[in-house]
């Protein structure tokens, strides 16, 4: 469903993504683990067309961002192609970014109404279903500040789902939460995975990666150093650096 092909990106002389290639099948839960600064967030931002890259391409079904050869020059993708691509991808990041002056329901219907042109009535009905799905059926009219961090993050998941994305990206969605709130958010992510959503999950929750992940990629210094099924990567890591990383995070 998604093909990342030879994507590289530098900030100045810092090569943050170094020839990254990755395939994600429909319905797959693909976890990405690795030390801080290894390029995980940058890769997700590329996958969401939030940032550009210096070479390579990313293909999602029939949508593509990346460089096209025109004679001897490489032509980059356009802003319109990026917007088209981004519309198919949902992102939930570490820091909740709900609109603070709008209710939970208004947050969830904003994208469908403003971007997709869905009628308000249809969007409200869909939002009610989504809020029930993330366990917030009774919070439609609450403001984000009235919710716990875990509830806010679940509302953010509902808001991303309201755009009917082909794939959901999670960037350490639980790492800013108090420990007692982590499980409720991981539970929603697990339910989403069981429902067949295609997901790319950057996480420090190794149990989640091992139990819910189908495949796990290990990043280090901008490269994918190990990539395989969750059980292979966790029980039979091939690289010493993976072994070291897992030891530090067990
Ligand atoms: P991770 O999510 O694995 O911790 P990041 O993708 O956030 O890693 O960062 C990878 C590298 O890119 C780090 O060295 C970081 O300092 C650098 N970096 C990330 N964003 C920027 C930016 N906007 N400008 C300059 N350097 C950046
Ligand atoms: Mg990060």
List the helices and strands and how they pair.
Blueprint lengths: L1 E10 L2 E11 L4 E5 L6 H8 L7 E6 L2 E4 L1 E3 L2 E3 L3 H8 L2 E4 L11 H13 L3 H14 L15 H13 L5 E5 L7 H16 L3 E5 L3 H7 L2 E6 L2 E7 H6 L4 H9 L2
Parallel strand pairs: 3-10, 3-11, 8-9, 9-10
Antiparallel strand pairs: 1-2, 1-4, 4-5, 6-7, 11-12
Helix pairs in contact: 3-4, 3-5, 4-5, 5-6
The chain binds adenosine-5'-diphosphate (ADP) and magnesium ion.
Explained architecture:
The protein is of the alpha/beta class and 250 residues long. It has a domain at 99-165. The chain has nine helices and twelve strands. The strands form three sheets. It has a six-stranded mixed sheet with strand order 8-9-10-3-11-12, sandwiched between helices. Strands 2-1-4-5 form a four-stranded antiparallel sheet. Strands 6-7 form a two-stranded antiparallel ribbon. α6 links the parallel β9 and β10 (198-202). It is globular. The two termini are 31 Å apart. Residues 11, 14, 16, 36-42 line the site of adenosine-5'-diphosphate. It comes from Devosia epidermidihirudinis. Belongs to the ABC transporter superfamily.
């Amino acid at each position: 469903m998604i093909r990342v092909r030879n994507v590289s990106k530098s900030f100045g002389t810092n090569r943050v993504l170094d020839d990254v290639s990755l395939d994600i099948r429909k319905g797959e839960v693909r976890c990405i683990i690795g030390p801080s600064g290894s390029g995980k967030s940058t890769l997700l931002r590329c996958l969401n067309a939030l940032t550009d890259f210096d070479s390579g391409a990313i293909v999602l079904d029939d949508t593509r961002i990346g460089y096209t050869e025109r004679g001897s020059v490489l032509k980059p993708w356009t802003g319109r192609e990026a917007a088209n691509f981004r519309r198919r991808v949902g992102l939930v990041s570490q820091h909740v970014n709900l609109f603070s002056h709008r209710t939970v329901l208004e947050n969830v219907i904003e994208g469908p109404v403003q971007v997709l042109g869905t009628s308000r009535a249809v969007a409200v009905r869909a939002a009610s279903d989504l809020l029930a799905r993330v366990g917030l059926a009774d919070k439609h009219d609450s403001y984000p500040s009235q919710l716990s961090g875990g509830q806010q993050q679940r509302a953010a998941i509902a808001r991303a789902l309201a755009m009917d994305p082909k794939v959901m990206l999670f960037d350490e969605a639980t790492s800013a939460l108090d420990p007692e709130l982590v499980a409720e958010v991981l539970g929603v992510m697990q339910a989403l995975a069981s429902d067949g959503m295609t997901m790319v999950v950057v996480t420090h929750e190794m149990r989640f990666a091992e139990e819910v992940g189908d495949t796990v990629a290990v990043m280090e210094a901008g490269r994918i150093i190990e990539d395989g099924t969750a059980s292979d990567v966790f029980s039979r890591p091939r690289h010493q650096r993976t072994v070291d990383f897992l030891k530090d995070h067990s």
